[in-house]
Specification:
49% of the residues lie in helices and 13% in strands. By secondary structure, it is of the alpha/beta class.
Length: 287
């Protein structure tokens, strides 16, 4: 009997396929066909493979049918059982990309190319600033409620984007956060304490600037919503703001100047990076 036989258990040992992600679904289906072909070439039934790898038959059918994305440990066991010599293990990289929602992959790809990122966020913290606990709390409170699969995919995708902090050479990262977003105890006291501690760690990085927009400011250039700007090594850029150009991404220099102006004003109106760090330390002491 496989380890996921109680209930089906496929959610524990695999990830869901995003039905709206045609490219990702095609990759998962192709890799599933390869695994099935290898199994059949060895003359093994699904039941035989299930017994060998100690996973349920339902999971194998779904992975081979392109209905579920296999987790790395599943690929390792199947590679050994089918004596694939690393061919199935090599699928990890392709599957690691499609496990994240398409929009997250596209955003992460742009962030990976950016030499400068500037962002202003009002409600929650910017995705690049979030801890796993904070991100999970945000996804779990979504309405209509997300399934466990959707929560896990969302959290995994958000955490994968944090690789930007380890890039060499390091990109310049600037964030302006609304004070209210730092005071709202998303996930509860302990999650928020961990989040504030993470923000303080990030302020120690030489390529990161974090500023707080205090609630007592009479002038506020970001009242129309969040702003995000990504600039690339070739001099091009892309930006987006909820309150400009219908919220769509823009790359036209004239429109980018509008977003640049607003973001520059926000930075001037916000607390300085040193004042912001002191403010976060104070909040942490109160939490």
């Amino acid at each position: 009997m496989g380890v996921d036989s109680d209930g089906d258990g496929t959610e524990e040992h695999s990830w869901a396929v995003d039905p709206e992600d045609e490219q990702g679904a095609a990759v998962v289906a192709a890799l599933g066909r390869q695994m099935r072909a290898r199994r059949e070439a060895m003359g093994l039934r699904v039941a035989d493979l299930a017994a060998a790898i100690q996973y349920g038959e339902a999971l194998i059918y779904k992975v081979e049918g392109g209905k579920r994305i296999a987790k790395p440990e599943y690929l390792d066991k199947v590679d050994d059982a089918l004596k694939a010599g690393g061919l199935i293990r090599a699928m990890r990289e392709d599957l690691s990309h499609v496990r994240y929602p398409k929009k997250v992959r596209e955003l992460a790809k742009m962030e990976a190319l950016a030499v400068e990122v500037g962002a202003f966020t009002i409600q929650g913290l910017h995705g690049l600033l979030q801890t796993e606990g904070y991100a999970r709390a945000l996804f779990e409170m979504r309405q209509p409620a997300y399934s466990r699969d959707e929560v896990e995919r969302g959290v995994a995708g958000r955490m994968a984007r944090l690789s930007i902090f380890g890039r060499v050479p390091a990109p310049t990262l600037g964030f302006v956060q609304e004070e209210a977003s730092l005071r709202r105890p998303i996930g509860g006291t302990m999650v928020m304490r961990g989040q504030l501690e993470r923000l303080l760690e990030l302020t120690e990085l030489r390529n990161v600037t974090l500023q707080v927009m205090p609630m007592d400011r009479e002038a506020h250039a970001g009242m129309e919503g969040r702003i995000e700007l990504l600039k690339f090594a070739d001099g091009t850029a892309v930006g987006r703001s909820e309150g400009a150009f219908s919220g769509r991404p823009v790359s036209d220099p004239k429109r980018l100047r509008t977003l640049d102006l607003r973001y520059g004003m926000l930075r001037a109106q916000a607390l300085t990076p040193w004042e912001s760090r002191a403010f976060i330390e104070q909040l942490l002491g109160e939490t």
